[in-house]
Amino acid sequence: MARTALPGRLGERLRWRVATLAGRRDETAGARTLVLDVPGWPGHLPGQHVDVRLTAEDGYSTQRGYSLASAPGTERIELTVQQVEDGEVSPYLVTDMAVGDQVEVRGPVGGWFVWTPDATEPVLLVGGGVGLVPLMSMVRTRRAENSQAPFRLIYSVRTPADRLFVPELLDGAGTETAVLYTRSAPEGAERAPSRLRAEDLVAHGWPADRAPTCYVCGPTGFVEHAAGLLVGLGHAPERIRTERFGPTGG
Question: What residues does the FAD-binding FR-type domain cover (predicted)?
Answer without folding.
Answer: 14-115
